[in-house]
Design goal:
The complex is a heterodimer of chains A (about 260) and B (about 180). Chain A contains six helices and two strands. With about 260 residues, chain A is mainly alpha-helical. Chain A has one domain. Chain A has a two-stranded antiparallel ribbon. In chain A, a hairpin with a 2-residue loop joins strand 1 and strand 2. Chain A is globular, with a radius of gyration of 23 Å. The mean pLDDT of chain A is about 90. Chain B contains three helices and no strands. The longest helix of chain B is centred in the middle third of the chain and has 134 residues. In chain B, about 10% of the residues are buried. Helix content of chain B is about 85%, strand content about 0%. The N terminus of chain B is likely disordered. Chain B is mainly alpha-helical. In chain B, helix 2 packs across helix 3. At the A-B interface, strand 1, strand 2, helix 1, helix 2 and helix 3 of A face helix 1 and helix 2 of B. Chain A: It is found in: Cell membrane; Membrane. Chain A: Its main location: membrane. Chain A: It holds the Pfam family ATP-synt_A. Chain A: Belongs to the ATPase A chain family.
Chain lengths: ~260, ~180
Amino acid sequence: MAANPIEQFEIKNLIPLGNIGGQEIAFTNSALFMVGAVALITLGFTAATAGRSLVPGRAQAAAEVLYEFVAGTLRQSAGEKGMKFFPFVFSLFMFVLTCNLLGMIPGFFTVTSHVIVTFSLAILVIGTVIVYGFVKHGAHFLRLFVPSGVPGWLLPFMVVIELISFLSRPISLSLRLFANMLAGHVALKVFAGFIVGLGGLAASGGMTGVFGVAGAALPLAMAVALTAFEFLVAFLQAYVFTILTCIYLHDALHPGH
Amino acid sequence: MAQPITAHAEVPGIEGEGANFPPFDVNTFGSQLLWLAITFAVLYLLMSRVIVPRLSGILEDRRSRIAGDLRIAAESKARAEEAGEAYEKALAEARGRAQALAQETRDKLAAETAEKRAALEAELARNLADAEARITAGKDKAMGNVEAIASDAATAIVERLTGQAPAGDAVSTAVGKAMAQ
């Protein structure tokens, strides 16, 4: 095997900044790509919308498509009231999408392949739901865990189930994104490793060389197909993260079932 | 877990330690959380302050512009329809007036013609009457002359037959008697 498929997820300290409470704090490669993603998003949108033209150019049309796409998703899932969360949801979507897509460039670090990042984002979403739910509805927000139209003897079980399902949301939300990005990149790296390994065999010539060429072509085709698939996954997971956020926000807005 | 304590020693060692799975390496969580918080906060601020208001402004401008244009178009159409109706009405009125005028003219001309004809007929009748009167007068005059001629002729005949001239009165009386029969 040419390279360890896990190596790409390694956090490297670029600029050490000291440590707080025993935790090493540094400007890492992960931080570099977070900053890069934010810079890319903000500069991209600012440049695309600088013209504020009535008839949009290519860049502005793309920015508008992204805006309308997320706005439509939010409006559909959380209703017109949910639009107050639009900047938050749009930031989430653009951040996750950009980090996912940046990770697709060979040699680039994938921020969203670290569970702490996706879990933090998920906690941010659930925290927003809980805080907004209690601020807006007070104790009425707890109605979220009491489904209506359930016979009395079944209610305690239902409340427990609802509570568990609510608490598992940040976990499923973060693990889905993290696992997809991690697994995709590992699979790509493994197949790429096969190409190199079997390609080396091809260079040795003779019968083994013929076998090596055929053997290297197969994982190459696989890697090409996987790359296309990973682009789809990168977009799809950003979308899934966003739409689930919208659905959870709907609960914060309308806690009654 | 003694990992947090050995954090400093671990960091350079991670590269060599292949078994350590980077996403679960607690030592890196601090930096990642810090930078995620900073970058996402900056992104959220820029999104909510600059990018989203600008984008929604652009879309709102376009929506209101299109709605305004559609409204103006509808107004123009209504105005055009109104003008068309007014034109039709004016046309119908003009046609009615023209017909009335033609009828009036026709009536007037007919009346004038009738009047002229009546006048002409009256004149002709008068001329006819005059002529008849003249003829009657002529006839009467001629008849008066006939009496005198008859008297003369009767006197001449009587004179030739009897050789003596009768009395003028007797002759004219006799002629008058004969003519009255």
